[in-house]
Amino acid sequence: MKKQYEKETICVQSGWQPKNGEPRVLPIYQSTTFKYETSEQMGRLFDLEEAGYFYTRLQNPTNDYVAAKICELEGGVAAMLTSSGQAANYYAVFNICEAGDHVVLSSTVYGGTFNLLTCTMKKMGIECTVVDPDDDEETLSRAFQRNTKCVLAETIANPALVVLDIEKFARLAHSHQVPLIIDNTFATPINCNPFVWGADIVTHSTTKYMDGHAMTVGGCIVDSGNFDWAAYPEKFPGLCTPDESYHGITYTEKFGKAAYITKATSQLMRDLGSIQAPQNAFLLNVGLETLPLRMERHCYNAQKTAEYLEAHEKVAWVNYPGLRSNKYYELARKYMPNGSCGVISFGLKGGRKAAAEMMDKLKLAAIVTHVADARTCVLHPASHTHRQMNDEQLKEAGVAPDLIRLSVGIENIGDILADLEQALAQAD
Ligand code: PLP
């Protein structure tokens, strides 16, 4: 489908385009393999001489129709689904980095991403320098090295809710001849399109708002097609020099703007796996259909909740980019004029102990290791998702020990506030 519709329409109508007599709803291609008439035809697929499906570890039609929808929502040229958001961030970086390379990483990224880059990928020989995203450009520039291959940051950081100055980061990355990779999970393409502001690659944990119902773990990588890999062949040999595992194909020469996603699909998926199950892609597609409606409600409910908490006598502080008092209010208005996300963080005057007491008293909001789905939920990152970090790392990530992360759902706002009211009344 050509880019002729608004996002609400894309969410419902894009991706699967049934021909005459075909199913109206995206079919689940529940098949590991695909049949061909001749052995030569199959051989051409293995040489990447012809496009087509042969094995679901690399590609599956259901996944690709859903990836195409997300690609259109982000305004990219190519996209792929992965089995999780973790896999998306891993592949997005590993597709252009190898042992001996270096990454510039925002300190406020999700704990899992922080761990992936600073521990696991370090063991693979890929180093990273962690930077404070609020630092000025001169300071941030010092983090870059001769072997730096990319910059990775989040539009709205989970759970610190730091709003990234995307234009500043794009300028920095490009002045050092590397792409900017943005994890756009919290904002979703409904509230922000990082490509418009200069980002080159976008990743998502589709597990969150995109699925929206807490049913499937998944991820997505979208390429803007704007980064000119071929201009820096010595920096990106994986894309710009022959791939021996594909009989000497050079991705940038053969696939042009689709080079990055083609390499990630045909090389990384082939060798490492991590494809999203077609069943999950099907459910993700159902979630995507209502994403704009849900984001609107999430943002409305979160704004009301943040204002309520800010006025509450037992609350010490509230962090939500939609509050005028918030440090990131202006940046959020610039990059996300229609609202940011449904996640709020706050602390109680009674500190960590009161936070645990309050959370235990909630009836509607459940304590779960999840965020950004239809049901209101709550988490204490220092004890749960970020427990691998020491106090210093927590501070750098913008996670105070007393921080409660509240993911505001799409229930009735009166019910959400009443639940908080009764729980706060019982906390010291
Ligand atoms: N990126 C962000 C911003 C996240 O919040 C998460 C998970 O919470 C991830 C990536 C990892 O995604 P997944 O849990 O789907 O692997």
Structural notes for this entry:
The protein has about 425 residues and is of the alpha/beta class. The chain is about 40% helix and about 15% strand. It has 17 helices and twelve strands. The strands form two sheets. It has a seven-stranded mixed sheet, with helices on both faces. It has a five-stranded mixed sheet with strand order 8-9-12-11-10. The chain is globular, with a radius of gyration of 22 Å. The chain starts with 6 loop residues before the first helix and ends with a helix. Bound molecules: pyridoxal-5'-phosphate. Pyridoxal-5'-phosphate binds near residues 112 and 207.
SSE order and pairing:
Layout: H1 7-13, H2 39-46, H3 61-74, E1 78-82, H4 85-94, E2 102-106, H5 111-123, E3 127-131, H6 137-141, E4 148-154, H7 166-175, E5 180-183, H8 188-191, E6 201-205, E7 219-223, H9 237-240, H10 251-255, H11 259-272, H12 278-289, H13 291-310, E8 315-319, H14 329-335, E9 343-348, H15 351-361, E10 366-367, E11 377-379, H16 391-396, E12 404-407, H17 413-426
Parallel strand pairs: 2-3, 2-4, 4-5, 5-6, 10-11
Antiparallel strand pairs: 1-7, 6-7, 8-9, 9-12, 11-12
Bound molecules: pyridoxal-5'-phosphate.
Pyridoxal-5'-phosphate is lined by residues 84-86, 89, 110, 112-113, 154, 158, 183, 185-186, 205, 207, 217, 219.
